[in-house]
Structure prediction request, 431 residues.
Amino acid sequence: MTDNNKIATLTVNGETYELPMYSPTAGPDVIDIRKLYAQAGVFTYDPGFTSTAACDSTITFIDGDKGELLHRGYPIDQLAGKSHYLEVCYLLLYGELPTVDELEDFESRVTHHTMVHEQMMNFFRGFRRDAHPMAIITGVIGAMSAFYHDSLDINDEWQREVASIRMIAKMPTIVAMAFKYTVGQPFVYPRNDLDYASNFLRMCFSVPCEEYEVNPILARAMDRIFTLHADHEQNASTSTVRLASSSGANPFACIAAGVACLWGPAHGGANQACLEMLREIGTVDRIPEFIARAKDRDDPFRLMGFGHRVYKNTDPRATVLKQSADEVLELLGVEDNELLQVAKELEKVALNDPYFIEKKLFPNVDFYSGIILEAMGFPTSMFTPIFALSRTVGWISQWKEMIADPQLKIGRPRQLYHGETNRNYTDIETR
Ligand code: CMC
Prediction:
């Protein structure tokens, strides 16, 4: 945060107050209102945090008007094109791209933490087979604090590091186990000679009765999906992780809170909802009907995979994924995939419609990811778990940054209270 010597003045009930301002390295200036209540006796009101910076961060920057997403300054399209997921994880966690030796050491640390405690198998087996994998994952991540007692002390830097590596390493194993459990197949142990994405695909799709060869092009596409979802600044689930950890809660409890928040259809659950919507539309001739519904104020239907709180031009992740969808479907020989045709036509119609133009609604990351994941063989219920897997590094990086911040304070929003004021208790007989 740079002090730019700028001051904002605010007049409340005839009194004028001076508020310090800061200039970030990118993005709009920020007014510091921390002392406002003490000085002026008023709160600010911002449900949905549309104008509130809740933290000081150096990890990810989004310019919504330009459609730009930077991790530690590097544009997402360059990272998705030239890097791979674990390299991006290193960048997010430690601030710089790794050297060859640093990357080798990091990959070795991650791959040597991929197994989960054997006792956890029993925990999985307590769930119903028809449970949504997100329900299982939320529970299992929360339960990690009961299995890994030696990485719970958030005041110990080494334990924080071990917890971070454990989360990144074990998440693919846990997500694959949740998948195997819900389809009634045996769990598959991780293989440390495989790269991160190939290992995940193998844990999901191999069975003990036959050999499974990971297709390198599909592994690359999987890795790119992980990379594109790795972090996204102060979104709802990341803010949830930060709020949970502001109380000093252990890292596994905080990530479980993030997973739970991600599940909602306005956030990570949108990829499942989007594919279900494309299926419901079914054929291109039904698109006008759904566009009309999305525009109808009396109909709660929204075009899933469209719109974003921050992006008002284009979602750069969607641009990369659209290209990836074409490549993957061609590789699998399903380029005439009906859902892809519906998606492309829907995008074309919406982008030319005055309603969507005026409200600056564009396809977001969830619009094309589901088509790729379905073509790879994942059921829709696995889309949000794969998002959670990918975002784990973002949650962990933001969590680590927050714990190390000397300004750390428990998160405690205020409220605009419109309830009853103090009144006397009435006995039940006289109510
Ligand atoms: N379809 C139709 N209308 C929409 C849509 C949509 N997908 N999104 C926003 N609008 C309209 C909305 O009705 C509102 O209209 P009005 O001003 O007339 O009331 C206007 O656009 C602004 O919408 P908002 O809900 O105030 O905007 P927001 O910033 O609070 O919401 C959003 C952002 C992503 C929740 C929303 O666009 C949405 O619900 N999209 C569909 C769900 C989705 O794809 N979510 C994934 C987001 S990206 C990945 C992630 O974050 O996990």
In short: The two ends are 56 Å apart (CA to CA). The mean pLDDT is 94. Residues 306 and 363 are 4 Å apart (CA to CA). The chain has 18 helices and six strands.
